[in-house]
Specification:
This protein has 7 helices and 6 strands, in the order H-E-H-E-H-H-E-H-E-H-E-H-E. Strands 4-3-5-6 form a 4-stranded parallel sheet. The chain has a two-stranded parallel sheet with strand order 1-2. Strand 5, helix 7 and strand 6 form a beta-alpha-beta unit. With 182 residues, it is an alpha/beta fold.
Length: 182
Amino acid sequence: LLTYTDDQRLTNSSLDTIVDLDPDVVIAANIIAPEDVRALRERGVTVYRFRAATDIEFIYQKTRLTGRLVGECDAADARTAELRDQVETIRRATAGVREKRVFNPGFGGVTPGRNTFIDEIITVSGGENLGARYGSGYPSYEPSGVAAADPDWFTKTSGDPVGSGLESTTAVRNNRTVRLNP
């Protein structure tokens, strides 16, 4: 279990734990601080840090690159093909369907906005990503603005409640919260 400081940096004990595992490669998500990547590299660890995913195509590329990094190219290619098929099936199934207003209350008061793969997933699935109204990347949002937009659905990656101030929304009143596997 990795632990973080108040400023979202890995603690020294977490860095030590990673080094002690003697990994062949560490695959770091874009949310890992560049300083932590640098600290691991200075300790002799090979680290590949992904940039933020801006669309579904990036997820396909990331899957294939991960396969190359760990020596599992065939498995990664197969998984990428499965993902492409699933996305295309969803695209066909939602073509012509009235868009639903969807909000994803992210961690720490931010939400996936425009130019994120989550924005594209919501759109492909027949939704309007209300987070896109707040900007690109992962902008902050105000619960009052979300309540005023009255989402039809919430999507979440954690078991935490949707948040206070949102109880009057269509999504909460109709128990329409989809829990996603992160």
